[in-house]
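Hi! If you just cloned this repository, the fastest way to understand the data is to look at a raw example. We've pasted two of them here, unedited. The first protein comes first, obviously.
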Amino acid sequence: MVEDRHVIETLGKVRVVIENGEITEVGESEMKYCPMFHAMHKVDELNEEFIRKNINFRIKDFGMCTPQRVIEMDDLVTVGISEILKTNMEKGNIDCVVGACDGAGTLLMTNPRVVQGVGGRVSGLVSTTPIPEVIDNLEQKGCVILDSKTAELNQLEGLKIALDKGYKNIAITILPSPMVAEIRNYPVDDDVNVYIFVAHTTGAKPDEVEMLFENADIVTACASKAVSEYADENKPYYYGVKVPIFCASEDGRRFLDIRLEHIGKPLTINEYPRDKSDAPHKLI
């Protein structure tokens, strides 16, 4: 029985397993080109060699899935979900983020730099096991861990803890799943706001994407064929050309524009048809 095992999906929904700080499994993906990685790393094809190199870099650079995990970071990109959350927390618009961290599972965060550190450089976290050093470091920074014995991933249960602790403006990061609708429909007091940020949409089905836009506030494009098609038909506000971030609600647009204004970028637009000259390939 492996006691230290972490499963992520990354770089076109490729399944990667990390055990005891070593990569033990790398899957395959139909997506071979990502404009973001091409811009940052000059890589033309997301093959197994590059994926291993990139994940090993994350393990060595900030201790992903290891006891050396760095939990506080500065901005990584100009506009990503963690950057949007960090800026809005700094400005007082969000007082708690329910997120997920390798080695800890679902957690509550109230420190903007921890929000960035936990979410800024990790892809879709499918499952994880507890790493005591990571949990201790997070708790020292004021985080509340949902279950330190199992590192359970359950954002709805995280929301319940946030409500019990009296937070009023709660942001939740989550992967596509039916739980998005459960969170949106969970009863809260009139003075409580729950904001849902959905990442890692590659591979989502059309009916699932429709549900996401009906319930979430922000939905990332990733390499999702269904998200791209939904956006082209329904024309939500968005920011970005290569891998857009879509506003599924007015609150989502407000949060995104606050981040854009903070860094001096043009605000969200509603210009269609979108420029797809440098999009991920192929969309899944």
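Ok, and the second one:
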Amino acid sequence: MAFAQKSAVLAGHQNPITPGGPELVCARFGQPLVAADHVADTLGVVGVLPAGTLPVSFFVRAPAALGANFAVSIGLANAAGTDISTADDDGGVWVAGNTTGAAGGYIQVVPAGFAKIVPKDVDRKVLVKITTPGTGTPAGLFAVDLVYANA
């Protein structure tokens, strides 16, 4: 099941920032979530890892309004674009069952799988997948700040 609202990236309103040299780039990607989205395995494209780049770290930003028990998994899309890739050259699942949204917060994550990611000649989609729905009538903006550089 897809999210009720498209992210700015999926809607075509936000293009990825491509580094011009050796600098690090930090791109903020957001996914609006409404109560109807709180179903296990709901997923959507939240951002893009541009062609020829490698991720360095990322930050998960979630409001407490997403409800108790809220948890997500994050990673690159598989070849079919239907789920998070488990392939080593995509870094596997970057984060599994992150609970930042249960109480709200902002955390930095540097997955061990980042060391295995192989740069590609195409943009790759970053997916967010709800693993545990929030309780109540949760709504808010779930965001990922992705830091990356040219390979």
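That's it. A detail worth noticing about the second one: The CA atoms of residues 81 and 122 lie 14 Å apart.
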